[in-house]
Amino acid sequence: MLKRIVIIGPESTGKSTLSADLAAYFGEPWVPEYAREYLNQRNGSYDYDDLLKIAEGQVISEDTLAASARNFLFCDTDLHVIKVWSEHKYGKVDPWITQQLKSRHYDAYILTGVDMPWEADPLREHPDPSMRAYFYGVYQQLLEDRGLPLLAVSGPPSTRLTAVISWLETEQNW
């Protein structure tokens, strides 16, 4: 039975690295954050309507790669990120995104801590440590409210990877 695992957290917290490393360890696919692909095509420019297009692209990518997964599908973020971003920047969320959040199933979340050093990137918007902590708290509360298995990780990439592998290999909910 396929388990969808979401790696989520603020910007520049090692989500993509952890997703790729987990996929390599388990020999499974991982879903890159579609927003990066989309925003790179638009030189980083976006508005409210683009968030729906990004959400649709993320869902399509997930569903496409799920077909080639055996046990795990590792998702570098999910629609929670787009919801939080939309609420923060525009004060609203497209109803399709809200509906998808209610209907899509994920089995567990890995929340990446803000102790990773900030890496500048033209697509990143909030380097301030207080904003990184703010978004971490928002994601943590959203995930706790969902009641799904949640593992918060911190430390260097190798420590994070070891912790997640151990957790996934021993998680009783599988």
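(the above was protein one; protein two follows)
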Amino acid sequence: MDHEKVLDEAWRTPGVTAIDLPPVDVNQVLAERYELDRDVTFTRETLWDMEARKAAAPDVYIPTVVKAGSAIKWPSVRHDGLEDFTRVSDQRLWADPDRFGTIIEHVRLDHGNQRAFFVAGTEFEGHRATTEQPLFHVEHSVAGARDRPLNLWRIILLTEQVDQRLLDVFTAMGEDPYLRVFIEVYLEKVLGVSFRRK
């Protein structure tokens, strides 16, 4: 499977609900919005390490979305700087966050270009994806200068016509002035930094 091609073709499909969230300058947001117990500077490598860990353990790094203990990751296959695997987890529904549904994602980590692709699946190894919301593809990636990395995130929900409710959910998410929860988790769990939001 060419994960990047799947996302790019879906992005151009009429009727899908496609959202490109604003880039997040991680170090700028840390400086402006957080009090830390010690100085820390993210590099592109640090931010990519977070992305790779999050891809493998979404219930650890996205506890506000993924039900604790629900994530299953199948073994990785590595080739030409790429790492492919499938993961299944129970995630909050985007437009109805009090409810959870099973999400199947075929993942590709492009370590050389620091891009992570998540392609929706409907069935895998006896698991079936929820039908309570549209299937969706995601790309998380790292951009920017080495010592001024940007956290990028785009999502394509496979709707037949643009869904305003879903657009509103992600618009609100993009307006959050703080770092995304997975970066905060990485700060604490991996870098050992305590913080307080200003």
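Reviewer note on protein two: The mean pLDDT is 96.
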